[in-house]
Design a protein that fits this description.
Helix content is 44%, strand content 17%. The N and C termini lie far apart (48 Å). This is AAA family ATPase.
């Protein structure tokens, strides 16, 4: 049975699609080379001589109105299918396409790698919609984990940790991870992942996106490692127009759609950060190995205890740990009044990867810091959490 069905007379795109599927995707492609689409599922399946596929790809060279008619019929009769539209439609038509039942939109100029990433995402979406009720009930009440990376002080490697956590989780759950840059004025997630996003958090909190998660997904940027990113706006002034309640709603939406939502936050405790923390299932506290950072973290933890908004699942990370700094882990724990869960040693490999915009976990380098980062990521693996919840604050020092 073919997982992918292409409805298009374009021989050029047919060849690109088959090349993408042949290199890294399980399944095959069946093509109906016509710009007139079947009237409905029964007619389509008769032409295919098989039961329903997982992903239907419409176009290019199929009229836009015909594609929307087809999508509306299938969205009503077979809402579990993933419909992908291949088109250079105007942004003003995007909402109409999503509401008609189109799950994703792909440019006709996309290369094989981009096609493969999008098809992986479509297959993941199909699998999610076809999970058994028992499986869905076990998934944290139907919501994904929201993992916030926080630090009272800047310059401690918070974004580096957040991007590596997202990349590592993407290897556990491909196409089920989104990283959100909530340092809305000076966020570096885009540069940390070497992305040039067309859309940002500003788009994601618009009324259209807030009311329809399909529209929201259209504003996410796909990363080649199989994760999504929602980056900070390029103009710091835009941050002034984003309110905490909008961020609260955004995170609620994303946690319904993704297994993991990773948040990179601004230093300190701004209103946006506190609103985000209230949505977190897990908080990663990051400190460098210097007295100002440690005292800042101690003060921050104390404030949050008083406000009673500290998430139960806490992970304290000592970043850029260096035995030559004159402090050891016990000194750190004594200063902050909490155990250190993971210690990440100072590493040239991590520094180089940050400057290149390629997280070190994406390249699987052999380095002590890589080992520590993987142990941090493992703390969010459902298998680890089930087996070792009682040891959630066991220290890991490399």
């Amino acid at each position: 049975m073919s997982r992918f069905v292409l409805l298009s007379p374009s021989d050029e795109f047919d060849q690109k699609l088959r090349a993408a599927v042949a290199h890294g995707l399980r399944g095959s492609v069946q093509t109906i080379a016509s710009d007139i689409l079947p009237a409905g599922p029964a007619e389509l399946f008769a032409l295919l001589n098989q039961e329903q596929p997982e992903v239907l790809i419409i176009g290019p060279d199929v009229p836009y109105e015909e594609a929307l008619r087809f999508a509306k019929v299938f969205d009503v009769q077979l809402p579990g299918l993933s419909l992908v539209l291949v088109s250079d439609i105007e942004p003003s038509f995007l909402v109409h396409a999503m509401r008609a039942g189109i799950r994703d939109i792909l440019s006709p100029q996309a290369d094989a790698a981009e096609i493969r990433v999008l098809l992986e995402r479509a297959c993941q979406s199909f699998a999610t919609r076809h999970r058994s009720p028992e499986t869905q009930a076990a998934d944290n009440g139907g919501k994904g984990l929201v993992i916030g990376v926080f630090s009272p002080k800047g310059g401690v490697g918070k974004t580096t940790l957040a991007t590596n956590i997202a990349i590592g989780l993407g290897q556990i759950a491909p196409m089920s991870v989104v990283i959100v840059d909530l340092d809305l004025q000076f966020g570096d997630v885009a540069s940390g992942l070497y992305l040039s996003p067309e859309h940002t958090v500003t788009d994601a909190v618009t009324p259209a996106a807030a009311q329809d998660s399909l529209v929201l997904k259209a504003f996410l940027t796909v990363h080649p490692a199989g994760i999504y990113a929602l980056c900070a706006p390029p103009n710091p002034v835009d941050a002034d127009h984003i309110m905490p309640d909008q961020i609260t709603h955004l995170l609620e939406q994303l946690s319904q759609e993704f297994q993991y939502v990773v948040l990179d936050t601004a230093p300190g405790m701004p209103e946006i950060g506190l609103a985000a923390m209230e949505q977190c299932t897990d908080v990663v506290w990051v400190s460098a190995m210097d007295i100002p950072s440690l005292r800042g973290l101690r003060s921050g933890l104390e404030v949050l205890r008083q406000l009673e908004i500290m998430p139960e699942s806490r992970h304290v990370v000592l970043n850029m740990a260096d035995a030559k700094a004159g402090l050891n882990v016990r000194d750190v724990e004594s200063t902050i009044g909490a155990p250190v869960d993971v210690s990440v040693p100072r590493s040239r490999a991590v520094a180089l990867s940050t400057n290149r915009g390629i997280p070190v976990l994406q390249e699987s380098k052999k380095d002590p810091a890589v080992k520590s980062l993987r142990q941090l990521v493992e703390r969010f693996n459902p298998a680890w959490r089930t087996q070792t919840q009682r040891k959630l604050h066991r220290r890991v020092v490399i």
